[in-house]
Predict the structure.
Amino acid sequence: MPFVAPSILSADFACLGEQVGMLNESVADWIHVDVMDGIFVPNISFGFPIMEVLKRTAKKPLDVHLMIVHPERYVERFCDAGAWSVGFHLEATEDPLPILQLIKNKGVRTCLTINPDIAVERLFPYLQHVDMVLLMSVFAGFGGQKFIEETYDKIKLLRAEITRRNLQTLIEIDGGVSLQNAQELVATGVDALVAGSAVFKTENPIETIRQLKQA
Ligand code: DX5
Ligand code: ZN
């Protein structure tokens, strides 16, 4: 069974507390938290005030996905704000290792992310240094985009490399994940599914989360 991480970016912020309450009642494993700075990606989402609400109301671990330049400036603050895992983009840094160390020093799980135009092999030197890698299956910046099919080839390469080296690194997939592709994604080697619109834009999010979990 995959880990399922609904992305709070697609929630109705007019009733954020209720939406978190729904996730608390669901079989979701984590809450995915998309932080965008308007520079690394052409969109701005939210930051610490929302983290504070999530920390106070969520019973599920917070899986923070930083889409920001200079992640080294903020990773510790997100750890202190209650993140359970902190991920940032490889292409936003020159050397991810010292930044990963900042997160580890806080006792928080690490995740390294790449956009669809970055070769998956660029993650390979870091696989033994991270708890999880996150493959973007849309270009980071917006919820509700269409899944990029070429991502399957990346998942296969990544899964083969992780298996070959006998590592425990988890593979998380983010962007355009739905009930239509969840099963194939898991069969291809994905450990964790992020889903925004597929969860929050359905009649019955609790049931959708349950079905994603069955994938
Ligand atoms: C996109 C974010 C995703 C997004 C997923 O930049 O990283 O987490 O919220 O939304 P859907 O599932 O709608 O593609
Ligand atoms: Zn995300």
Observations:
- The chain has a mean pLDDT of 98.
- The chain has one domain: 3-213.
- Helices lie at 16-25, 48-57, 75-80, 96-105, 151-164, 182-188, 197-200, 205-214.
